[in-house]
């Protein structure tokens, strides 16, 4: 099982915002440089995080975004479900599987998925910030790699 890059970027954005020392707004360009991720990917993620109420966004000259919730209130299972779309991990209908009526695979996989989410329900965004000062220090130096600025 592998999380989508979209979810990975969303978690990174939330961690970055939670580790910020001040209430200074962050821009897509700043995140693009820090994470070495194209702007257009981050725009989509930031838009959804804003719709979910996890970040506050503002357009214009003094625009940007910041964390809108307490990191201790952001459960990882809920964030990942929202970003992943909580889709089935096995699709027995595209293409249609001949053994679908008697197959146990989908049931086992779904139980594993729920076990995964139940485990993550014990952790919050704050749980990811045990080394907050080191995180800030490491993210304070953007990666010097050119990215597509689409």
UniProtKB/TrEMBL annotation:
> Per its record, what are the GO molecular function terms?
DNA binding; DNA-binding transcription factor activity
**Source species, domain of life:** Bacteria
Tell me which InterPro entries the record gives: TR_Rrf2-type_CS (IPR030489), Tscrpt_reg_Rrf2 (IPR000944), WH-like_DNA-bd_sf (IPR036388), WH_DNA-bd_sf (IPR036390)
Q: Might you report a single GO cellular component term?
A: cytosol
Q: Give the UniProt keywords, A-Z.
A: DNA-binding
What the entry lists under PROSITE patterns is as follows: HTH_RRF2_1, HTH_RRF2_2
Q: What Pfam families does the record point to?
A: Rrf2 (PF02082)
Q: Entry's PANTHER family? A: HTH-TYPE TRANSCRIPTIONAL REPRESSOR NSRR (PTHR33221:SF4), WINGED HELIX-TURN-HELIX TRANSCRIPTIONAL REGULATOR, RRF2 FAMILY (PTHR33221)
Listed name of the protein: Rrf2 family transcriptional regulator
| Species whose genome carries this gene | Idiomarina abyssalis
């Amino acid at each position: 099982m592998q999380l989508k890059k979209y979810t990975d970027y969303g978690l990174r954005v939330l961690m970055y915002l939670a580790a910020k020392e001040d209430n200074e707004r962050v821009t897509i360009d700043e995140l693009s440089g820090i994470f070495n991720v194209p702007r257009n990917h981050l725009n989509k993620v930031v838009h959804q995080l804003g719709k979910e109420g996890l970040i506050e966004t503002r357009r214009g000259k003094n625009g940007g975004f910041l964390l809108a919730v307490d990191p201790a209130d952001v459960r990882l299972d809920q964030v990942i479900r929202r970003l992943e779309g909580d889709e089935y991990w096995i699709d027995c209908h595209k293409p249609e599987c001949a053994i679908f009526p008697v197959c146990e695979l989908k049931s086992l996989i779904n139980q594993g998925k729920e076990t995964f989410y139940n485990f993550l329900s014990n952790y919050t965004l704050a749980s990811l910030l045990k080394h907050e000062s080191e995180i800030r220090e490491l993210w304070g130096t953007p990666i010097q790699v050119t990215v597509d600025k689409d």
